[in-house]
Structure formats: C-alpha cells, structure tokens
Amino acid sequence: MSLSIAASGKGGVGKTTVCALLVRYLIEAGKGPVLAVDADPNSSLGLLLGMEPEKKIADLREEANEPANTPSGVPKARMIETWLNQIIQEGRGFDLLTMGRPEGPRCYCYVNDLLRQFLSRVKKAYPVVVIDNEAGMEHLSRLTTDNIDCLVVVS
Question: What was the pLDDT predicted at 70?
Fold first, then answer.
C-alpha cells in the first residue's frame, strides 16, 4: 500500500518547493521510487526536480480531440490510458506526471478527472506519491486528491 501526500495552500506560498524537497528527502531516505505528481497548472515541479515536462495530461486532451489521432476501433478511453502511461517521465528515484494547463476556453474538469482516475490506478505501484496541487482548495471539490494519507497545508 502506498503513502499519498498532497500539498495545498494559497498561490505563491511554496507548495511546489515543499513538494520538491519532500520528493528529494524520500529518495535519499530510500523510500522510492516516488511518484511526483504536478497537479498545478503552472507545472513547475518537474523543473525543481531537474526535469522539463515533455508532455502533460492537458496535451492529451487536445490530441484526443483530433480525429487523425484516434485509430479506428480503439475506444478513446483505452487510447488515453495508454497515452497516460507513456507520458510518465522517469527521473533518478522518482517518476513525474504533469497535469498542465489546458489551452482555450474549455472546462478544466476533464483534465482533473483524467488525473484522478489515472492516479487511483497507478499509485498502487509506488511506495509514495507526492502531489503538488494548484493554489486554493478546488482540488478537494474536484476530488483530484482522493484517498490522501497526509495533506500538507503550506502557508
């Protein structure tokens, strides 16, 4: 069973820095591999961990809406699940999953839902999951951070 830790708080208080330090500490303490989840639209957790996010969950939403990217006979949900597994980036002692900011005026709910569903399946494969949430408390109502063992409120 994995330990899930999420950071919450107002914008600019240091949630991402706390998460990056926590990931590094957990790796050094031999608790890895750690799944580092950047659920903040600003997407800077990877940079603090020394990794540039190549692809984000928000990018998948845009790609899934392009008919040319949808192979015939493959359900969209299965295709997106495959893509989600492919965008997890491997670091030294940790893996990184980045939500990102969806482009355009469309709702952010779908991207949050993709993240929540995917995390509920994949987090079992990691001893520790650290989630850097967006500013505010919306992640609680969107259920992005369901089944959290420890909520760190940074102020």
Answer: 65
